[in-house]
Amino acid sequence: MARLNCWAGQAALSDRTWNSRVPHGTSNMPDTLLTLRYAIEKAHGCKANCADKVTVHEKLNGRTVWYGTVHVFDLFGHESAPRAYAWMFTDQLGEAPRVITVLHKGVVTGPSEAVRAIIAQLYSEDAQPNQHVNPVPTK
Q1: Cα 72 from chain centroid (whole Å)
Q2: What span, in angstroms and rounded, lies between the C-alpha atoms of 132 and 77?
């Protein structure tokens, strides 16, 4: 898994889709939520519980660069972050969705800041400011 350092926060960007068949009695949770929780627990080494979901709409120069749902997770057992933010996205049509997780640390104080941190990191790595990130809708 590739790790991204975004501003003062830490983010994890997976290179694969997580298997949504996650153990410990959560069969009634939607697959997307299970996938996100599993990704957080594996990437950050702690237990996570979904506390909320928020719609985030980020624009740059009047154009939408990202619109989607960010799930907010309370963390249990993490040494430095009380929360994490997670969502799925694809940046190319037909590509498998990837999971993004961002810890609530430093300037990352909410879902919008988490999305901005990833956008800034993706744009600085790819140097393609006209590329748009298409989120995967949640169930």
Answers
A1: 9
A2: 35
**H or E element, residue 38:** helix 31-44
State how beta strands 83-90 and 47-60 pair: unpaired
What is the tens place of the pLDDT at every residue in 94-116? 888 889 999 999 999 999 999 99
pTM for the predicted model, two decimal places: 0.71
Residue 4's beta-bridge partner residues? 11
Contact between 51 and 73 under an 8 Å Cβ cutoff? The reply is yes
Query: What is the per-residue DSSP string for 6-23?
Result: ETTEEEEE-SSPPPS---
Which pLDDT belongs to residue 122? 79
- Return the structure tokens found at 119: 């956008």
